[in-house]
Task: structure prediction
Amino acid sequence: MDVTRKTLAKILVVVFVANLVVMGAGALYSYQNAPPIPQEVVGPDGQTIATDERIQAGKATFQSNGLMNHGSILGNGAYFGVDFTADALDLKTQYMQEYYANERRGRSYRSLPDARQAAIDSRVTNELDTDYDGGPVEYSAAELFAHRQVREEYVDRYANGARERGVPAGMIENPEDARRFADFALWTAWVSHTDRPGADYSYTNNWPYNPVAGNVPAGPTVVWSAVAMVLLIAGAGIGVWLYHSIELAEPEIAGIDIPDPREVDLLPSQRAATRYIPIAALLFVVQVLFGALLAHYYVERDGFFGLGDLLGIDILQWLPFAISKTYHLDLAILWVATLWIGAGLFLPGLLTGHEPDHQRTLVNVLLGALVVVVVGGFVGVWLGFKGVIGTDNPLWWILGNEGLEYVEVGRLWQFGLLLGFVLWTILLYRGFKPMLDRESRYGLAHMIIYAGGSIGLLFVAGVLYTPQTNMVMTEFWRWWVVHMWVEGSFEFFIVAVIGITLVSMGLLEKRSAEKAVMLQALFVMGSGVIGASHHYWWVGLPDVWIPFGSIFSTLELIPLILILFEALGQYRALATSDESFAYRLPFMFIIASGAWNFLGAGVLGFFINLPMINYYEHGTYMTVAHAHAAMFGAFGFLALGMAVYMLRLTVDPDRWNERRLQWAFWLWNAGLAIMVLISLLPIGFLQLETAFTQGYDAARSLAFYNGDLVQLLFWARFPGDMLLILGTIVFAYDVIRKRFVLRETSTPDETPGGTIPDRILAEDDD
Result:
């Protein structure tokens, strides 16, 4: 079956518009059905316990102090600390049990016989598993007692500090702020056990699992898990059928003319673009070092091999987990994005031989602007964590720490990044202008512009909420930024960059690459955008997202199967090559990216996205395994492969040596495999079992993490971490060395030319 590029382009437009309609309508429906923040919470005598203003102030405290990168809320955030929703709910039930045990028997709950405990449990369940029809929330005496006890528990932990939990003193600056934060956490617990109007399950679809609170899997969770399993089989079959039915050319090395690096002109803007590589390499080194510190915090929560005592520095106080996690996450995004930006600026001149006026200057300006924004954002995060720009300053979320996972930096710095993406897209357009003028709107250069522009466009969703926005809707928009990037724009950009890179290597015709890019973009957009709604199942959004998330998350398997087949095809092409193939190493990175994408996003991603599995797994190490394999494996390896490709074309061919880069490649692959398969995944399975047998809060408890087997698995991660760190240091060293052996640039003639441009611009694209 031969599908034309024009047909694919039309279908892609239809799918894109359909996605916007579904997600736009879903946003409106979600606003209308978001869980309420009651104006008042009152005790049995009518006294005011909490207000909507206190709850929202607690949300601001949660964000400004970076608590989302210490623990999680509604299952989203970091996994070092507790999930605050599950923790508040569990503490609430425990204190209610103690209240009734003492009231009725004058004894502790644990000392009562099973029958008495069961009677108390039944009463607690009946009190918590209730409806809400507006007005003040009315507490029983037991709930009032529990609420006050949770407040003081949070003061002890987060204001006074709890080193055994890895919490430094003054993490929340004062006790009253800690009490407001407790009010916010208890509101999310209330949302989790209070039935949604007209339903027999809560606003969070009965998550987290806590039978005493009445939280057990709801009917839709079970039904749509069964539907997802049926779709899994169908999706796999459709993926295989499409791969064998649609005629797409595969890379071919044997018997074709592959441009030698000596024959490729190096333009001034391309050489400027290579400056992004050492910057990214240094960011990468710092990022993996922070990762090692984070991993060690799980086995020594208040130190680092005694180094703090030796130097007289309280590491936990100066570099707590939350700050380290924030920098680790943001640096991961930054070094990948830096390499992608550099590759995007390098490829236009390679394919067109065209150097727009002042392009080199603008490339350097963009790099300088990004450095300013990154430094400003990181300083703002630090000042926010340390309370210098706290919630008493109305600009705390503008200049300081906005405090939401993956979008931590203040809003001003986020606007700076957005402007950077806009400038980058303009530079892409200027560089690709000769191709854009010659090809149709569904040509390869157009695809790169669309993909680059969509990365910036989705970032706009990050300005659709403020600290005053209901946390549930905040999470709705945050996932637009975070996972629609990953499952939409980034995937689109990946296939476009791979396609254009294979064309520049001479391994694919431009027309074949265009068709492949549009086909994969069609499936990525068709499944990944709406599929991002699997993040909405347990955060308080309407239950309509369960069928949407189940169906489309399952269909995401189709493009990942195609990516796997593509990687296998690329491997076959590589196997037919000999040592004379100049781009063997960057080609290996492209293959590794496809393989890790299938494992991380495909195998692990599908497993944790089954609603019934995700109900117990949400916010556990299964997600950590999926995220590391998908993020570094797929996006990281592609970015590194593009960096190696850029180096291959810019380093003096007579002085090219890739031995160290090969070492880095295999160290990264081995380290990631050990980390994911030997440590993260087994811990995730143990957490899944604990959540199922003992309750979700137990799976996120300090007792679980301090268990002997779990601690052993934490230590088992360290060899993988060391290999990753070593590979990154080798890469950074090699990149810096190669800066001293770059080729001289050449000034292009008035008419674009060169080995690659002559072939590409001569193609008939009608």
Observations:
- The beta strands are 40-42, 48-51, 72-73, 76-77, 137-138, 401-404, 407-409.
- The chain has a mean pLDDT of 86.
- The longest strand covers residues 48-51.
